[in-house]
Amino acid sequence: MARLRNNKRKPFVKPIIRKQPTVDHVTGDKIPKSFVFCRGKLPGPLRQLQMDLRKLMLPFTALKLKEKKRNNLKDFLNVAGPMGVTHFLILSKTETAPYLRVARTPQGPTLTFKIHEYSLATDIVRSQLRPRSSKDLFKNPPLIVLSGFGTGEQHLKLTTIMFQNIFPAIDINTVKVSSCQRIVLLNYNKDTKLIDFRHYSIRLQPVGVSRRIRKFVQNHQAISVGLVTIISHGPLAGYGSESEVDDEAATVSLPMDIGRVNRASNKSAVKLQEVGPRMTLQLMKIEEGLCTGGVIFSEFGKIFYLL
């Protein structure tokens, strides 16, 4: 008797491909990635602040992260694992003030900050006479600079470690100066216990070259280094204003591969221009787990234990 053939096809199940965490080829460490999202309903300005924070965390963040009302923290945590996300930045709003929580996945700790004041990136741009707009500004992660956190207190040490691990580490021996386009500055005031959060862009301008010569070199890519040297020391050197860069300002000696303008002079001035957003934060609480667990530090004086 002939054997009947089973024509019923098995449904195709797409295999789950887990992305390996990105590793820095220079330092060998895992590159931190982040999710920036909100919990609860936010007003329009805080929604814009959320987008500004996502842009600040580029390129290792989800700029177009989709979130719905029914999503809970576990949903984001399930997606974070396969994508190699290491940190959460969570915005929320209560009746008294907005809050920012910075958490490390998957097991914490979680730092809760109260946002006393904030300014959006659009507000910063409108206040500037010549705002900087560059396509490559957000191509590389920013540098992180912490000031005033070395007081020896345990909760400030933990805050320092948390913010240092949010951004990728750099090797000063191999890093390219041209990749350092932005800087995030956090300044802690021990008297007011407030943290000033600032975001700047970095510009390098040669010392001893007039503004007209500098713009001429930037607009003409085929110009040679010798021509810049001749013009800057020749009859045209007296024309143009050098008020933007002072010879007494902070200068740095740079390699010869950072740009056409700086080849005319090895000494360049470092100029910071605020990009935004700007925030004034206060550390309110540190929790052991991911938005849960024992309280390591509390601003109200209730401390269960210290690290």
Automatic annotation (TrEMBL):
<feature type="domain" description="Brix">
    <location>
        <begin position="32"/>
        <end position="292"/>
    </location>
</feature>
<dbReference type="InterPro" id="IPR045112">
    <property type="entry name" value="PPAN-like"/>
</dbReference>
<dbReference type="InterPro" id="IPR007109">
    <property type="entry name" value="Brix"/>
</dbReference>
<protein>
    <recommendedName>
        <fullName>Brix domain-containing protein</fullName>
    </recommendedName>
</protein>
<dbReference type="Pfam" id="PF04427">
    <property type="entry name" value="Brix"/>
</dbReference>
